[in-house]
Design goal:
This protein has 345 residues and is an alpha/beta fold. Helices cover 28% and strands 26% of the residues. The chain folds into two domains: 3-147 and 316-344, Medium-chain alcohol dehydrogenases, catalytic domain (Quinone Oxidoreductase, Chain A, domain 1, Alpha-Beta Complex); 154-289, NAD(P)-binding Rossmann-like Domain (Rossmann fold), CATH 3.40.50.720. The longest helix has 14 residues, at 148-161. The two termini are 21 Å apart.
Amino acid sequence: MKTMQAAIWYGAGRENFRLETIEKPSPQSGEVLIEVKKCFFCAMHARAVLVGHAKHTPPVIFGRMFAGEVIAVGKDLNHIKEGMRVTVNPEKPCGECFYCQKEEFGHCLNPIKLKTGAMAEYVCIPPSLVHNIFELPSSIPYEFGAYTETLACILQGMDLSNITFSDCIIIIGDGGVGLTFAQLARLRGATKIIVAGKHDDSLQQALALGAYLTVNVMKESLHEVVMAETGNYGADVVIEAVGSAQTYEESLQLLRSGGTAVGFGGTPPGTKFKGDPNLIHYRSLKIYGSYRYTSHHFRQAIELICTKSIDLDSIITHEIPFSNLTKEGVDIHNQPNCRALVIDF
């Protein structure tokens, strides 16, 4: 039996995230075997290790955001070749459930997914997802290709925000996601992009990426700055990219009448926040949650990455060898200066 190393999550607790030897998959007819080169370890993974995750039942091999090299192709496949540098959209809607019938594919109840993720040396793509394999140009590093799914999720948030020319946008969160939102808001035509966070180095980077203004919330009041910049009306759009009760509550207070709030940040299980119904009612606020993405967003993300339309060098700040992931991944990810952590195989 051929074997490989995989990082397996057995539930909350650092001791339950372990590197183990398991059987290496062998591609059957219509399947594709990929040697993983890069895979992201994100906030969701860190939360799962520390406190668990409501949407995942252990044991799980995480890793949807990855890129690698095709090393074996099953029978009856002509468009995929060994040696191709690729990334993969790791799911597709079933096309039959309640939400698919309403064409709300991001909420599909029975999405077709990878059986195991890419926090392993190899990942096997089933026939049902082979057409979700996308070739990467040689000029695009594997880590950029691995960022595609994250970018697809952010693009859905952008669509919900309905950002347009001359809008005032507040992005709460100066991590990799917040800085990506800032770049996309600039591409959409927003002129007054204000990024709020706690890290001076990231806020300085936000200015370099096109932000109009930054606010270190440890040193000044975001509410006061926003009101001063908008004539006390509030922002057109607020994007929450932190994932805390405090920032979700604050998002609504920063909006103008008729403004739009997009809740992008995931929170730990059981998180609650206080909201004022009169604020929502009398100001006619539009409030959206943004989770997952569609195949259209994934293709848009590929195009943005392959044309180098966004700067990912400033987003991907940290790298960890796969052999050290289960021991050091959470601590590195949670460092204040880590915007995005990629696993190197």
